[in-house]
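In this section we turn from sequence analysis to structure. A common task in structural bioinformatics is to predict how a protein folds when a small molecule is present, because the ligand can shape the pocket around it. The inputs are simple: the amino acid sequence and a SMILES string for the ligand, here copper (II) ion. Study the lines below before reading on.
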Amino acid sequence: MKLQLNLLLLLSLLVITPMVIGCKQNSSDNESAQMVKNEIKVTIPIEGMSCLSCVANVRKTLSNMDGVTEVEVSLQDKKAIITFVPEKATTEQLRKAINQLGYKAGKPQEIKE
Ligand SMILES: [Cu+2]
């Protein structure tokens, strides 16, 4: 009797689990696809960064801004690559934040991927 119950439980798990997981995966896939669509990536040249703490400084400030999802700062290339949601932030705000730290932000350029 107990064995039968277990078998039944196992069977129902086998049937139900893939449905639940499949459903979840689908919805999260859709969500992430939409997130990517809503974000843009720009590169902004930055003058005045001279060491790694400058880089960390810029990265931290930009990362903390509303709407910014990803920041890469290169000391060698003198630029920042910023991914952000255009509804929440503008390149003008990003440049302003960089300038307020004492560096000089150049003309933003959108990166198409
Ligand atoms: Cu420095």
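Residues 50-51, 53-54 surround copper (II) ion (CB under 6 Å). As an exercise, try to locate the residues that line the copper (II) ion site and compare them with your own expectations.
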